[in-house]
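Blinded run. Sample ID left blank on purpose so nobody reads anything into the name before looking at the predicted structure. Input follows.
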Amino acid sequence: MSATPQLFGTDLPAGFHYREDFLTTDDEQMLLAAVAEVTFSDFEMRGVIARRRVAFFGESYEGTVARPLPEFLRPVRARLAQWAGVDADAFAMALINEYRPGTPIGWHRDAPQYDIVAGISLGSACRMMFRPYRAPSTIAPGSPRRRATHEILLAPRSAYLMTQQSRDAYEHHIPPVDALRYSLTFRTLRRRSY
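Blinded prediction complete.
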């Protein structure tokens, strides 16, 4: 895996890996054309409809199987898997997020049943911010607003992997985007111990 990038003289969270130009311009155009044919749905989390729209493939948040992985995502999944050092089939879930101008995604950690999170940016750039995770039950009412401790610009055609601390000890957020952006996100499942 590539080295962790530097920002403001400080490393990003351990386990965060980033590659610019992971895709060629032709790759991106092919993916954008395929994504234009995808049916998106509103995304509801804890009773609130998010501003982004989504399309799930493979194993969903609830553990059920959504639509099967489309053929156009298979080569991208294989490249990300090779970079991450896992079998392509280990990425059991794929998600396409559509961020229209002004759309953010709030502070969160990905669902606990997932382990490695891999993403690709299409269309336009965005900022991805990190801060140490704190369980909501440990934050006293009226506490000062917590701020980001790390930030990276995700360029179009770039890819990232969140593993280790960047995945588990931090939460992340994307402020409102300036232009239409799509993210392709793939997740592996955590190994279950019985």
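Unblinding after everyone has recorded impressions. Helices lie at 25-35, 74-84, 164-168.
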